[in-house]
UniProtKB/TrEMBL annotation:
<dbReference type="GO" id="GO:0009986">
    <property type="term" value="C:cell surface"/>
</dbReference>
<dbReference type="GO" id="GO:0050806">
    <property type="term" value="P:positive regulation of synaptic transmission"/>
</dbReference>
<protein>
    <submittedName>
        <fullName>Uncharacterized protein</fullName>
    </submittedName>
</protein>
<dbReference type="GO" id="GO:0051965">
    <property type="term" value="P:positive regulation of synapse assembly"/>
</dbReference>
<dbReference type="GO" id="GO:0045211">
    <property type="term" value="C:postsynaptic membrane"/>
</dbReference>
Length: 155
């Protein structure tokens, strides 16, 4: 059994993910085992405990097989992405380049004002039918390089 959180193995997301399996909730001969998501069965208490608190926007089960990682990536990453609404208005010397998953965008402008205008045309898109509730954080890394008096880039 492997638990993925937003396409990343839970062990990389959480310090000590707790995945409990292979322990039947009951020992009735003709009753099949059940899978529970979001709580733990405490046999000594005869009830569910440690309930999940939060939002679960999607759950994908692949009984008796492990899904291909590329399928899992597509299920998760195809829904959240960045968009740039200024491609048709780029000036000479400006660039807007996405990574393959459209989750990172590199902008290149001739000056800070043009960069600011380009940045204002970047948008976050989540096309999931039931998006995960919560804030989305963006990291912006800016580097500026100046021209020398002879017109060359200074280091």
């Amino acid at each position: 059994m492997e638990l993925l959180v937003d396409g990343v193995p839970a062990a990389e997301v959480y310090e000590e993910p707790e995945i409990l399996d292979d322990w039947p909730m009951h020992h009735v001969k003709d009753l099949k085992n059940r899978m529970v998501v979001g709580a733990c069965w405490q046999g000594s208490q005869g009830k569910m405990t440690q309930h999940f608190k939060g939002y679960l926007s999607a759950l994908t089960l692949s009984p008796f097989k492990q899904e291909n990682p590329s399928v899992v990536q597509c299920l998760l990453q195809c829904k959240e992405r960045l968009e740039f609404f200024g491609l048709n208005k780029l000036k000479v010397g400006e660039e807007a380049v996405f990574n393959r998953d459209m989750t990172e965008l590199t902008l290149k402008a001739r000056n800070a004002i043009d960069f600011s205008q380009m940045l204002s045309k970047v948008s976050y898109v989540n096309s999931r039918p039931n998006p995960t509730v919560g804030d989305r954080f963006a990291r912006i890394i800016a580097t500026s390089r100046c021209l020398t008096s002879s017109g060359e880039l200074a280091n």
